[in-house]
Write a structure and sequence with these properties.
The protein has no helices and eleven strands. Strands 2, 4, 5, 6, 9, 10 and 11 form a seven-stranded mixed β-sheet that branches. It has a four-stranded antiparallel β-sheet with strand order 1-3-8-7, with no helix packed on it.
């Protein structure tokens, strides 16, 4: 069993930055992968970024490449998502998710565990 807890959301102004954190408990396998998604009410979850726990490989959605950055702290079992140059359209509930299998990093259905989400609101 893996539990994920996100934090770091809040209300910011356009152009500001935020760092989201996701702490997980439970065993971390080398094949473990963690992703960040966001969801606007009434829409599907959107993939943002992925990091391989053992490999450190990072992957990004084209929509956030160059603005968002994913990183990890193995000792603290924490994954971060740095959000830069925020825009009002980045307002959403942000989730981290863990993938213990070998499914596509891009699809939400490939992830076994989800956090409760943290809300980010960007005002203009």
């Amino acid at each position: 069993q893996v539990n994920l807890v996100e934090s770091g959301g809040g209300e910011v102004q356009a152009g500001d930055s935020l760092t989201l954190s996701c702490v997980f408990s439970g065993r971390a396998y080398t094949s473990f992968g963690l992703g960040w998604f966001r969801q606007i009410q009434g829409k599907d979850r959107e993939f943002l970024a992925f990091i391989g726990w053992g490999s450190g490989i990072t992957l990004y959605a084209d929509s956030v490449k160059g603005r968002f950055a994913i990183s990890k702290d193995n000792a603290k079992k924490t994954v971060f998502l740095q959000l830069n140059s925020l825009r009002p359209e980045d307002s959403a509930n942000y989730y981290c998710a863990a993938q213990t299998g070998s499914g596509s990093y891009y699809y939400a259905a490939s992830y076994n565990y989800w956090g409760q989400g943290t809300q980010v609101t960007v005002t203009s």
